[in-house]
Amino acid sequence: MQKGLITLLTLFIVLLQAALPNFGYAGAPVVHLSPKPVWLNTYKAYDKKVSSRNITNGYFYQLFEEQLHVEKQADYTHIIKEIVSEAGIQNGSSINIGFDPSFERLDVHDITVWRNNKPEKRLSARSFKILADEKELSRFIYQGSYSAYCILDDIRKGDRIEYSYTITGRNPIFNNKFSQDLYFQSSVPFAHVYKSILVSPSRKLNFKSFNKTPQASVSKKDGLTNYEWSAYQVLPVEYFDNQPGWYNNYAYIQVSDYSSWKEVTDWALSVNPVIPVTNGKLAVQIAGLKAATKGNKERYFRAAVKMVQDEVRYMGIEMGEYSHRANSPEKVFNQRYGDCKDKSLLLASVLRAGGIEAEMVLVNSGIDAGIDKFIPTPNAFNHAVVVATINNKQVWVDATISYQRGTGTNIYFPEYGKGLVLKPGNNGLTTITPVKTGKIDLQERYTITDEKAKVPFIVTTVYTLNEADKIRDKLASSSMSETEKSYLNYYTKVYPKIEQTDSVTVIDDEENNTVTTIEHYLISDLLKKGKETGRFEAGFYANYINDLLPVIPNKAVSPVALSFPLNINYTIQVVMPNGWNIEEGHNEIKRDAYIFKSQSSAENDTLSLNYQLAYLKDFIPVDKLDETREDAKKVSDNELSYSFTFTPDVSKVPYHFNYWMFLAVMIFAVGLIIQAIRIYKTETKSLQFVHWRYQMPIGGWLILIALGLAITPLAIFAIIINNGSFDLSKWNLALPGASKAFYKAAFTFEVFGNIFSLCYTSFCFFLLIKRRDIFPKLVIGLYAYHVVFHFMDYALLQAAGVKLDTDDSRDVMRSMIVAAIWIPYFIKSTRVQKTFIMPYPVSNYAFDTNIQPQTEGHEQEIKGDKLPG
Questions:
Q1: Is the pLDDT of residue 253 over 60?
Q2: Phi, psi at 591, each rounded to 5°
Q3: Dist. CA 869–CA 865, nearest whole Å
Q4: Higher pLDDT, 4 or 188
Q5: pLDDT bucket at 655, cuts 50 / 70 / 90
Q6: What distances in angstroms separate CA 73 from CA 101, 172, 199, 226, 321, one per listed residue?
Q7: How many CB atoms within 10 Å of residue 747?
Q8: For an engineered disulfide with 467, which of 62, 135, 254, 463 has Cβ 3.0 to 4.6 Å away?
Q9: At 227, is the secondary structure helix, strand, or coil?
Q10: In sequence order, what are the residues at sequence separation of 6 or more whose Cβ sits closer than 8 angstroms to the Cβ of residue 378?
């Protein structure tokens, strides 16, 4: 689409050139051949070359000379460049001289190629090709400038190319006022730099140096003041990617004969006064705006802004004096196009016609607040905006921004820092109060139903304030099919098998200035088979955040620009059956220039990965580059990625023996066995025993107890095996919705609890067979332990977030019912009291016939047993 626009613009230029006289064009651009001016200074030649280690592009400048005659409006340039390699032949064998024929004359004085210290004259008018030099076409600006190109034949390694020319004439818009920047550095090295200015003593020049410039030598020549500067062995300035637009580390001097900002204000007001609108189509339009807004100034303000921003397209014809002079508001409105000053003057005029105080303001969109470092000059500005006063509130408006919406005076304005308000008497720059910036809320939602089904993927993005303005303009500049294709291509890079299932939905709330876009996709390859059978894997990466992180060159020694203002809230949501098994995580990096936050959490079946990135300034200072580089790497490598495994059927996962768990269980079991032996051998000294003939056999309800104690260890052993107690995969299982730490704690508690129950139950069964006196107390403890164990196991699993079924709650209830029945029985049953009377060691008592019974009724044969109560 951009190529098509440039083609249309090129056609427009061809048609425009046919009508150039209407714009004050002086004729076809011509290269004149003439001798050097007679007013030039002479200086001592310098023959030392640039060190080979500093040469770039295969050539260097032996001499770069500029002499300016302010009163004659003439700029003389003399250059000698030496080719040192084949690369230099490619890069340095042409001459390119830019000029504006509407007010400038180009005179070439000499072209000489020195080979083996012998001169070869190459000057010829036919050697030059004159081409339109429209570098700003992509920004819809036509300047009318040209370049005279001379491509030299037969240039060889070691040749020196020497040429000189003079450009005479200055833009008449400045009324013979002079201001210019003198640069002493470039991207290539200079052996010798010479600059001079000849000026009338009656003209007071103001100077300001930047980045260590040479000292000026001041003298008198032919009744003029002569300023001269010389620099030797000037190294090139290294450029680093992502430097801020305002950053200028070249050595240069700003020269201006404007003594104050008031002079600049007065000049600008004389060039672009706000013109009252009294008739024509624009007056009719203004009358319509007044009628529609019924005297409400805020509504009138918004209607006027919308008309100028959206109905008058951005296009600049900046030839000659129109580089700074705006066209009349009536003309701009009728032709429906204009550049920044055209649209700003139109808007200011329309606002004033509605009773709103409004002025044009000159700003620099690249330098921002740094403009106050300059001495007064019109060249300090590159953009025009408007400031209006509505209900005692100052409102700033950029008329070149399209599709700004909202109500009243709530309108976004870029942080241009400071501006020169074109109001009579103004003698200083005005600080522009920053306004509230917008935000982008981006949510990506994946819904996984199983490992085979395509995953629905919905992207919802909400833009507010200036972000809404930008996306609204972007959507208006492209067709919906182009937009959908662009969005789909973005995600195709991550998911090759993604498909779009519906058109992009756009919801534009103009009153609140928010735009919402909704995208609908299906992804076929989100879940990929893992290394183990039965496991699937998926991962996410916050590419959107990563693309916005600052890129800091390793050896950068200059500030790095940030995409200010920026405020992104990016959320990835993944819906999974049975929920998630994650621990909440949070991280934050807070610096003066930026804030990054990340957070991971889960609620029910939804995983949320949230990332926030905000830029608080427009650059990273040099002393913070290392810190920022480390922060960006940390975020990119560690904070933006998330992966998980999905196990639809745990039974399909291969078995891996957990040796560490098995070893721990064996040690625990041995400890329990040793303790059981110690308890079994403990003598009950306080017990008085009856004759062994009166000990009752195991019978009655004790038969059920015996069967239960015999079967229970087998059942517990089966549970231990079937539950994968020694399966490493089960230990590492990521259960949806479960905390890893709590899950492993519950898993460990269950394994060791079952082992304890197995040993305890077996020991009780052994004591029952032996009819030991300590059996009733220990079996009561066993039933109580089962209640506590099942209850704590249930509580731990629930705390871990494991989804429980009815069997888990039944285990708790079953253990409580069993304990409620048998614990009272063992406390009150007469049969229990008569059956379990064998102490240890049996050899001391079992066959001692001299022991007499101590309790009445023990001599009687007990034939029955009954439950308590």
A1: yes
A2: -125, 175
A3: 12
A4: 188
A5: low
A6: 14, 11, 10, 15, 16
A7: 22
A8: 463
A9: strand
A10: 174, 179, 258, 264, 267, 268, 324, 362
DSSP calls for 413-482? -----EEEE--TT--S-EEPPP-----EEEEEEEE--SSSSPEEEEEEEEEEHHHHHHHHHHHHHS-HHH
Q: What is the mean pLDDT of residues 535-542?
A: 84
- Is the separation of the CB atoms in 32 and 169 below 8 Å? no
The reply to whether the predicted model has a pTM over 0.90 is no
β-bridge partners, 256: 179, 206
- Over residues 606-644, the pLDDT tens digits come to 999 999 999 999 999 999 999 999 999 999 999 999 888
State how far the Cα of 25 lies from the Cα of 380, in Å rounded to an integer. Answer: 26
CB 491 within 8 A of CB 463: no
What separation in angstroms does the CA of 765 have from each of 684, 702, 706? 19, 11, 7
Q: Tokens at residue 13, please?
A: 């230029």
Classify the phi-psi angles of 865: left when phi > 0, otherwise alpha if psi is within -120 to 50, otherwise beta.
beta
Question: DSSP letter at 863?
Answer: -
Amino acid identity, position 597: K
Dihedrals phi, psi of 262, to nearest 5 degrees: -65, -40
Helix (H) or strand (E) holding 750: helix 740-770
- Asked if the model's pLDDT at residue 488 lies above 60, the reply is yes
| Least confident piece of the model among 103-107, 382-386, 736-740, 768-772 | 736-740
Q: Is the pLDDT of residue 511 over 80?
A: yes
- Summarize the confidence of residues 750-763 as an average pLDDT: 89
DSSP for 643-687?
EEEE-S-GGGSPP-B-HHHHHHHHHHHHHHHHHHHHHHT---TTP
Residues 185 and 209: beta-carbon distance below 8 Å? no
| Of residues 115 and 140, more confidently modeled | 115
Provide the mean pLDDT of the chain. 85
667's CB contacts (< 8 A; 6+ apart) are: none
| Distance in angstroms (rounded) separating the CA atoms of residues 32 and 11 | 29
Question: Whats the size of the chain, residue-wise?
Answer: 869
For residues 438 and 462, the answer to whether their CB atoms sit within 8 Å is: no
State yes or no: pLDDT of 254 exceeds 70: yes
Which residue's entry shows tokens 């332990």? 785
How far from 451 is each of 496, 522, 836, CA to CA, in Å?
A: 18, 14, 59
What is the structure's pLDDT at 557?
Answer: 86
Mean per-residue pLDDT, 231-249: 88
Pairing of strands 337-338, 313-314: parallel
Span of 105-114, 415-424, 678-687, 694-703 with lowest mean pLDDT: 678-687
Angle at 51 between CA 47 and CA 56, to 5 degrees: 115
Pairing of strands 566-575, 606-615: antiparallel
**3-class DSSP assignment, residue 324:** coil
Distance CA 290, CA 437 (A): 30
Query: Residue 368's pLDDT is what?
Result: 65
Domains of the chain: 30-241+252-257 (2.60.40.3140), 264-431 (3.10.620.30), 440-646 (2.60.120.1130), 655-844 (no CATH)
**From residue 90, how far is each of 151, 302, 552 by CA, in Å?**
11, 55, 31
Alpha carbon distance 562, 593 (integer Å): 9
In the block, tokens 């050097």 appear at: 36
Least confidently predicted of 343-352, 582-591, 682-691, 758-767: 682-691
pLDDT digits (tens, 9 = 90+) for 775-802: 888 889 888 988 898 888 888 777 766 6
Distance, in Å, from the CA atom of 314 to the CA atom of 30, rounded to the nearest integer, reads: 31
Cα–Cα nearest to 102, from 167, 164, 149, 150: 167
Q: Which is more confidently placed, 833 or 44? A: 44
